[in-house]
């Protein structure tokens, strides 16, 4: 087991870390456990621990994946908390993938203007990214994560045993954010994956445990300095400007990590074409993602729609699109207002 400290809380990583849950909600009378059906067994395990510690548990099952990141679902959660007379001394626990912890975080941030939140990520992506760092939110018709709040959890419990039941494709999705961390901050991550992609994808293996720890450490370092994304935090959005546009175009039927994988190849090309990133580092993006089995291309004809969708990216300022690019390995920077021709040329590198 290991612990990574983020600004005001700890991320516990390892098999059996769920034991910390009662401590994290100490003092709460009621604890709402928000989860989706595929992780019911993990939610039940959390509920059992909470009941054993004397808490009154309010289980709230929500639609799975992106269907849960919707205002109607948040409203149903608020109704459930209202009916239970949930007060400021109570606590919300989000158990599930990134979609559930984003939703649960938003519910906790908004109910009574903020009640205690604990995240229990059960997907790889949730452990290395979504459940850590305080970004919470839901989608709207215009795009991904457009409504939300920065709201820090009281603690994060990454029980690696949960990965045993995670579908292989979702494990792969999490690997895209891990690769992102490798390129923006910790190249040892890339070396570990390149040394053996299959070992890296073994949920019971030591390599994956190290990759989780290293990725959480990258995120912790960044959000501890810049919780509200005033500057540095934007580097965690590497690959996301195009990735989010793909998710929206696919009506959220693509996994987030898969869309980010294509977005990473695009961002690497932007860096290369703008003369900032060496060709071999740009090529390494495609190579490592392909070796893992992640997608690296998207239909050519989608470009006009994707270009338009990128306008709602949170890094945009007015009509100026801004991208995270690399000046080298682990040297992220910003590219503001690239010419449309440059964007189109970078897209040709991923166009199928
Ligand atoms: N807040 C942030 O900083 C942040 C960071 C990255 C991603 N995100 C968001 O996270 C979401 C993606 O997260 P995700 O990849 O976990 O997808 P997801 O939440 O949709 O989960 C993927 C699928 O795996 C299932 N699942 C999760 N854990 C399981 C387990 N242990 N066993 C069996 N099934 C399990 C889920 O129920 C779902 O069906 C996106 O909405 C993305 O925008 C947020
Ligand atoms: O934590 C961050 O900051 C990130 O950008 C991490 C991303 O992996 C994550 O997908 C995040 O939800 C994207 O945020 P958004 O602000 O672009 O909606
Ligand atoms: Zn992401």
Written overview of the protein:
The relative contact order is 0.11. The protein has helices at residues 21-24, 40-52, 71-83, 98-110, 124-130, 168-184, 187-194, 197-200, 206-225, 240-249, 256-273, 279-292, 303-309, 340-348, and strands at 2-6, 9-14, 30-36, 56-62, 91-96, 116-121, 135-140, 143-150, 155-159, 322-326, 332-336. The mean pLDDT is 98. It is globular. Strands 1-2-9-6-5-3-4 form a 7-stranded mixed β-sheet, with helices on both faces. The chain has a two-stranded antiparallel ribbon with strand order 7-8. With 352 residues, the protein is of the alpha/beta class. It folds into 2 domains: 2-165, 3-Layer(aba) Sandwich (Rossmann fold); 168-348, Dehydroquinate synthase-like - alpha domain (Dehydroquinate synthase-like, alpha domain). α3 (71-83) packs across α4. It starts with a strand and ends with a helix. Bound molecules: nicotinamide-adenine-dinucleotide, ligand LNCXM5UN and zinc ion. Nicotinamide-adenine-dinucleotide binds at residues 36, 38-39, 42, 64-66, 69, 96-100, 102, 122-123, 125-126, 129-130, 133, 135, 145, 162, 165-166, 170, 173, 255-257.
